[in-house]
């Protein structure tokens, strides 16, 4: 069976080999590989540049978050300051009016604290906890040992994290 019998058309085998040799020549393969390499290098550079841009944007976002994190809190505190300023401008004030004004201002401040997750550490009568309390002294007492007897300065938590421990005096057993 020759090439003519197969399809009833003559086939020029030299044409077939010449087409294959132009696409499979080492030069063509090299050129194709160089193109693919250049394309891959361009993709790598693009991905690298995009990663660098993301890193820079992240740094900028973190800086902005740090810079303006206290903006809302500061705005809320301004109303407390305004109340204090108003109290100082009252000309015919007496002790009772000042006391009432301070109490109202304290309520404003407590509301701001609650809004931003600042809570007072309950200490008086509690068992001493070194994670939340700082003992200034120990006093002999009829109370059980390590019970908080007095609070010298209130402690505070910010979202369950101690930002200032309570300064306390703690009971100890009487020595005989």
Automatic annotation (TrEMBL):
Keyword annotations from UniProtKB, A to Z: Chaperone, Cytoplasm, Stress response
Domain of life: Bacteria
Location of the region described as Disordered in the Swiss-Prot/TrEMBL record: 1-30
PANTHER family xrefs: GRPE PROTEIN (PTHR21237), GRPE PROTEIN HOMOLOG, MITOCHONDRIAL (PTHR21237:SF23)
Family statement: Belongs to the GrpE family.
Entry keyword annotation includes Chaperone: yes
GO biological process per UniProt: protein folding
GO terms for cellular component: cytosol
Name used for this protein in its record: Protein GrpE
UniProt subcellular location: Cytoplasm
Organism encoding this protein: Candidatus Methylopumilus universalis
Key word Repeat present: no
Biological role stated in the UniProt entry: Participates actively in the response to hyperosmotic and heat shock by preventing the aggregation of stress-denatured proteins, in association with DnaK and GrpE. It is the nucleotide exchange factor for DnaK and may function as a thermosensor. Unfolded proteins bind initially to DnaJ; upon interaction with the DnaJ-bound protein, DnaK hydrolyzes its bound ATP, resulting in the formation of a stable complex. GrpE releases ADP from DnaK; ATP binding to DnaK triggers the release of the substrate protein, thus completing the reaction cycle.
Coiled coil: none
UniProt xrefs under InterPro entries: GrpE (IPR000740), GrpE_CC (IPR013805), GrpE_head (IPR009012)
